[in-house]
Each structure stands twice: as C-alpha cells, then as structure tokens.
Request: fold
Amino acid sequence: MAGGQERILRRRIKSIQSTKKITKAMELIAASQIVRAQGRIAAARPYQQGMARIVLETALGDPEAAGRLLGTPESVAKIAVLSVVADRGLCGGYNSSVLRATERLLVGEADAGHECRLFSVGKKAQSYFRYRGQAVEQSFLGMSERPTFTDAREVAAAVLTPFVSGEVDQVLIVSTRFISAGTQHVEVRQLLPLIDPREAEAPEAEPVATAPPTTGETDRPAGYTEFEPDAAILLESLAPRAAETEIFGALLEASASELTARQRAMAAATDNAGELIKKYSRIMNRARQDTITTEIMEIVGGAEALRAGSEVDEGGLIIEAMHAISEQPKGA
Amino acid sequence: MADSNLFTIDLVTPERILLSGLAAEVILRTGEGDVTFLAGHAPLVGSVEAGVVRVVRAEGDEERVAAHGGFVQVEQHVPMGDADGAGESASGTRVTLLIGVAELAEEIDTERARAALDAAEARVAELTGSGGRGPGTPDDEEPDAELIDAEAALLRAQVRLETVDATSAASA
Reply:
C-alpha cells in the first residue's frame, strides 16, 4: 500500500519531467526567434524614418491640407479600433493585457457616445470578443508571430478604408510596444489622422516608429521644397501609406513582444517544473524510506516475538534478522 | 566633399534597405513622367509610379530595381555623416526612395514573372470581356475590384519583365 503511493509519485514526476522538456524547448525556440524579430524591427526602421521625414516635409509644405489628415481630430463620432494580439497562448499576460486595454477603450468610447468598429489581429482576440458578444468586423489570423509587409497591407486596407471614405473619423490601434527585451507595454495610439510630426517634436513615447526629425530639417523655411504632385494631393496618398507603415511597425513590435512574453512564461514554467520535481522526489524518497523502516520494524518485531516464545541465543537471532534486511533487494 | 557629382541614395522597402550608397544619377518614373536626379537637385517630395528605377553608380555601373510605387524625397545640405556616414564624400544631396514593394533586377525570377504576366493578361481580358457583355449586371462593384487587382498584377509583371529585359540587354 505504501508502495502504491511511491508508484503514483514516480509517474507524476515522469510526467512533469516531460512537460519540463517541452517548456524548455519552447523557451529556447522563443529566445532564438526574439533575436530575429528584433532584427526585423531594426530593418524596418529606415523606411519608417524616411516615411516620417516625408510626411513632415509635406505637412510643412501645405499646412492647410495637413489639418485634415494630421493631428487630433476636433470632433469624433465614429472610431475604428485595431487590436493586435497573438494567435497562440502560452505567453503569460501578453494577450490578456492587450485585450483588457481594448475592452477598456471600447467601454470608454461608448460612454463618450462614440461608435466603435473593432478589427483584430490574432486568434486570441477573435475568441475573446466572440465569447463576450463583441462584434469584430474583421479578424486577421496567422500573422502574429512573423508579420510580413504584405500582411500589414492587408490589415491596413481593411482598417484604413473606412477612414479614407469618411466613414470613421479616427483610427486607433491597441498593441504592445517593444521598448527593449526587458520592457514592453500596451499602448493605445492614433493611426489616422496621422500623429502630427510637428507636434510630436519630442515624443518620449514614440522612440521607434516616428523618429523625431533631425533638428536641421525643422527650422527650414516653408516653400523650400518642391512637390510633385501638389503637397495636398501627395498627402492624400501619403497618409494611408504612412499609417500602413505604422501598422507594420506595430505588428513587428507586437511579434517581438509576444515572443519575449512567451520566453518569459516558458522559463517560469520550466523553473516551476524543476521545483515540482524536487518536491515530489522528496516526498517519494520519504515514502520509500518509510516502507523500508516499516519492514525493519516488522522483522525486528517478529524476531522479538520469536525470542519471547523460545529461549534461544538472542545474539544469533538478531544477526539473522540483519541478514534478512540486507539481502532484501533495494527498492522492492 | 570629395566628389560633388555624387550623392547619397537610399532605396528603402519596409522590410530592408534594398540599395544604399553613392550614386551619380538616379532615373525613375514619377507621376509627371520620367525624372533624372543628379547631385544638387532641388529639394523635392514626389510620388513614384510603378516602373524601373535605374541607379547609376559612381563607377558608371547601372543597377536596376523593379519598383511598384512609392515616394521619393530629395534633400539638400544633409548634415555630414547623417544616416550611414556616406554623406562624408557626397555633395550633401540625399535621395531617399520609399518603395512598398521592390526587387533588385537579379532577384527577379524571369520565368515566374512571364507566367504571371500571361495569367494576368488572360484575367484582365476575361474580366473586361465579361464586363462588356453584361453592362447592367447588379453586382457591378465586384468585378471592378477584381479587375483592379488583375490590372495591378499585370502591371507588376510588366515592370518586373521590363527590369530584367533591360538588364540582360545591357549586359549583352
């Protein structure tokens, strides 16, 4: 009966060990992918910076046209919200923190009397909102871990079209910013109208996507640069492209954040598994020791009983009993 | 200020820097026609149409890129050592091309592009054909979107082939 407990523990340890192997493998995979994801963020930066420079230049060229497409809209009635999460779980609080932020945003906007249209990237958003009865207009799957620019374009086409056609006044994105390998945080940002680069001169919250323009360019007189076509027309075609770039950047950062969160979660799971194994091994060893002790007690008890029955040489009996114990196969 | 005839060029796509360094001449297609940029060009922001972008290097070599639409910015007096430090030897002009989708000539799969061209041509012909037969169809919108897609695919294939053909002609 005591041996039964031991067997159960042994089985449990074995199962934890294999779980540990899996979580360890996932941790390593995530770790190796983080490096690649970070590389992709870095590779996308020149385009984002170039885009920010062009938008700034064009906005300076035609401040009037810039009014409609840049800055915070004065009156907002309808909003499109894009929520970016992962397709898979096993990444700690990564998904839930974005989803909760999205829900908070939606509730807040609804209270303010704004109508929201929700778009999402990632399977987890789809299931989360379906469960809560929140309609998702369009959901994009299969791109959260390794987004390409084509993916970003697809998302952008769906999310930005309502703005271009005037159906919504503002497009917001809820996603995780990848500040560094150690820091990521959920952020709600405005995609369209574009964040005015003239106002966002020193944006501490925007160190990545819209890099602050180099100082030499801001104090240049307006009307210095030629536009082909007109700045106003150019800005019309530029705004969706710039927002698309923003989305791509956000997707890349989200994927790096997802991988980081997953690595961290899996490292914690691996540690936890190790601890459990240690704990259960201890219990198992004690159980085994208990069985052995009980057996010794039984044998000694038996010997005592025999000795009480017939007056034989007691030294010999004890020695015989000891022999019996030492000959017992270990662990039986 | 080693050579005032050279300028910095960066051809950037969202996923990587396709081309970067010093150039003597950049020829591309804008909304207003083909334009050649030389060192000292006035500051400009413009749109780039789908077409071949030709970059003439300092040594006279020409590189070709299939560009599927984007933007170009020309800046003057870019601070030295800006961007990648290449400004050191250039004239202070910097041409930045932001192209959503672009391929270097040597990366283009000619066979695939040709197949894509045929497929796109067939598709366009089919769509315009059916559109002509039934002008009053209720779902007028949908074939339109499809046609736009097909025409875009056709244009992409054409640009790719143009880029490759010209390359092989130049090397022959």
